[in-house]
Specification:
Keywords: ATP-binding, Cell membrane, Kinase, Membrane, Nucleotide-binding, Phosphoprotein, Transferase, Transmembrane, Transmembrane helix, Two-component regulatory system. InterPro entries: Bact_2-comp_sensor_kinase (IPR050640), HAMP_dom (IPR003660), HATPase_C_sf (IPR036890), HATPase_dom (IPR003594), His_kinase_dom (IPR005467), Sig_transdc_His_kin-like_C (IPR004358), Sig_transdc_His_kin_internal (IPR010559). It catalyses: ATP + protein L-histidine = ADP + protein N-phospho-L-histidine. With 584 residues, the protein is an alpha+beta fold. It folds into two domains: 9-294, PAS domain (Beta-Lactamase); 422-571, 2-Layer Sandwich (Heat Shock Protein 90). It has helices at residues 9-80, 85-97, 119-122, 127-140, 187-194, 238-248, 271-275, 280-293, 297-322, 337-396, 399-417, 425-442, 469-480, 514-526, 536-549, and strands at residues 102-109, 114-117, 145-146, 150-152, 161-171, 177-186, 203-208, 214-220, 251-256, 264-269, 447-451, 488-497, 500-507, 554-560, 564-571. Strands 1, 2, 3, 4, 5 and 6 form a six-stranded antiparallel beta sheet that branches. Strands 11-12-13-15-14 form a five-stranded mixed beta sheet. The protein has a four-stranded antiparallel beta sheet with strand order 8-7-10-9, covered by helices on one side. Helix 1 (9-80) packs parallel to helix 9, helix 10 crosses helix 15 (536-549) and helix 12 (425-442) packs parallel to helix 13 (469-480). Residues 8-14 have low confidence and may be disordered.
Length: 584
């Protein structure tokens, strides 16, 4: 009978110590690997989304720059009548300044004369391309319009690169079309200037037009060079590309532009290459297990402890940052690559936290400064004069008028102290009416005023607080107060127009002299000092409206000396809650 072999005490001890610890370390490594890969996928999806948004944002900026250059050139055309050395010089300057993506400029007069830069391209301007510029500009009705993608040998990539013609109809001083202005934009360079790069893995940025057709794409890699890890035949249209990405499990993010371009951007990341760097963790676990089998338990434990602790610390730190804790710090005392990685991670989170805090403080300070400056110009003197008027009414006025005056003042103070930064339009109109009532009493009813109620669909529309009072105050003090020979009239009305909501403030006062009116209009356009105390309140309101809604909104002034002044306050149509209306 054969003798059965039994493990000795040493073998049992090795098994009892090694097997559980080996399994434990193996599973810990596997869990850390899976969690890290999962978090990596999540963060990379967010990173791709951020990159696609960045691309659309940069394209919008460059679109605005082109628009600004075309507006400047339109002024030059109006000054020179569509010909002359000044126009050619302006075209050459525009192309040189935007040489990275603007390849040419052309102006076609109504009589068919063509002025362009560079001349070796526009000199051979074909009837087909000239017809494209004319038809596109006429169809747009004076709006900046981008053509569908065309192929032109003037582009960066050589023969027949993707380009687009941006057109605008130029009108003379009489409002009649005088010609057509066009910029030729190299879309390949346009996309290359706007494309984002992740830095640690390959990315491919694809640009689609308003019809979801591929315009161009660009590939970037940390190793340099050029190649595309996605074939163009798979992404010729946006629906085809999205279907291909879903089927292949490719990381991607889509971002649409809300400007007149209506383009879409897809940023695709080869995150699988980044994930492949974590695959050796499984092999390390098996290697440690094999070392343990031959007696290197101590080495196994040491190596396991040496590597897993900093990895887990980094994982916890990344998890805290993902939850929004930008103050999270990773404590790794090792002086090797893992320690350096932890130090760089800590520096990154600190810089991000400082940037976020700085941006928040800057925006808050800007809003607070604008509001405080405006309020400080409205409240002190007005309150003093109102109280002085009430004091006089106590001695010579009727009790009914005194009660009415006190009630109006209470409403004004309550409205001023209300913390709502965007009250309904009807409340702002009521506040302006109360203010005018006090001023009318103060000046002995030297002027009449009328506040027309807002249309029902606009009554609850939110507007910036105290946007109307400085305008009517300006009309009273500078327009009606100095009026002699007739009684002043002031009317406030609200109209819904195609360009938005317009509040009109009209008076029959002394008006504004032409020179001062031009300085005031220039200050409203440039945001500068109107060089006169008369326009400070209007400039403040204009700046606040632009800060809230953009440069297309604000004030405009029309005035005739001896007849009166009309101030138009242009606002976007908004729904309750501050959301822009769908057509805005």
């Amino acid at each position: 009978m054969k003798r059965r072999l039994k493990p000795g005490s040493r073998a049992k001890l090795i098994l009892l110590l090694f097997v559980p610890s080996t399994l434990f370390v193996f599973f810990v490594i596997q869990i850390a690997k899976e969690y890290t890969l999962g978090f990596l996928r999540e963060t990379q999806n967010e990173a791709l989304a951020g990159m696609s948004s960045q691309v659309t944002h940069l394209i919008s900026i460059y679109n605005n720059e082109i628009t600004f250059n075309m507006l400047e050139m339109e002024q030059t055309i109006k000054q020179e009548g569509g010909a002359g050395d000044g126009l050619s010089s302006a075209m050459r300057t525009a192309v040189q300044i935007r040489s990275d993506f603007v390849r040419g400029v052309v102006y076609i007069r109504r009589d068919g004369a063509i002025t362009g830069y560079p001349q070796n391209f526009w000199g051979n301007f074909s009837q087909k391309e000239e017809r494209l510029v004319r038809e596109q500009a006429e169809a747009s009705g004076g709006v900046f319009t981008w053509s569908d993608t065309i192929r032109s040998d003037i582009g960066r990539t050589g023969a027949f690169g993707p380009t687009s013609i941006v057109t605008k109809t130029v009108f003379d001083e009489g409002g009649q079309p005088s010609g057509y202005l066009a910029f030729l934009v190299d879309l390949s360079a346009f996309l290359e200037r706007s494309a984002a790069f992740a830095g640690s893995y390959d990315t491919q940025t694809l640009l689609y037009d308003s019809d979801d057709k591929l315009i161009d794409y660009i590939w970037a890699s940390p190793s340099g060079g050029y190649k595309g890890f996605i074939a163009e035949s798979n992404v010729e249209t946006l629906p085809q590309a999205l279907r291909f990405f879903r089927e292949k499990g490719i990381y991607h993010s889509v971002s649409s532009m809300g400007t007149n371009l209506k383009w879409k951007v897809i940023v695709v990341g080869d995150v699988n290459k980044l994930e492949s760097r974590f695959k050796p963790l499984g092999k390390i676990a098996w290697s440690l297990l094999l070392f343990g089998l031959v007696g290197f338990l101590g080495i196994y434990v040491t190596v396991s402890w040496w590597f897993t602790r900093p990895i887990m610390a980094l994982t916890k730190g990344i998890r805290k940052v993902a939850r929004g804790d930008l103050e999270a710090k990773v404590e790794v005392k090792q002086k090797d690559e893992l320690g350096e990685l932890a130090n760089q991670f800590n520096q990154m989170t600190r810089k991000i936290s400082e940037l976020v805090t700085g941006l928040q403080r800057t925006e808050e300070a800007k809003r607070e400064s604008d509001m405080q400056v405006l309020l400080s110009q409205i409240n002190p003197h007005f309150l003093y004069n109102t109280l002085n008027t009430i004091d006089i009414m106590i001695d010579v006025g009727s009790k009914r008028d005194l009660h009415e005056m006190m009630g109006v003042l209470c409403r004004l103070l309550k409205y001023s102290l209300d913390g709502d930064p965007q009250p309904p339009l009807e409340e702002e109109l009521r506040y302006a009416g109360d203010y005018l009532h006090i001023q009318s009493v103060r000046y002995g009813n030297r002027f009449n005023f009328r506040i027309d109620p807002a249309p029902p669909e606009l009554a609850r529309m939110p507007v910036p607080k105290l946007v109307l009072q400085p305008i009517v105050e300006n009309a009273v003090f500078h327009g009606l107060h100095a009026l002699e020979g007739r009684k002043g009239e002031l009317v406030v009305s609200v109209r819904s127009e195609a360009k938005g909501v317009v509040v009109y403030v009209r008076d029959n006062g002394v008006g504004i002299p032409p020179e001062r009116l031009e300085r005031l209009r220039q200050a409203l356009r440039d945001g500068g000092d109107p060089a006169s105390g008369r326009g400070i309140g209007m400039l403040n309101v204009h700046r606040r409206i632009g800060l809230h809604f953009g440069e297309r909104y604000g004030l405009s002034v029309n005035s005739e000396p001896g007849i009166g002044t009309t101030i138009a306050i242009q606002l976007p149509r908004q729904e309750a809650g501050g959301r822009r209306a769908a057509n805005e």
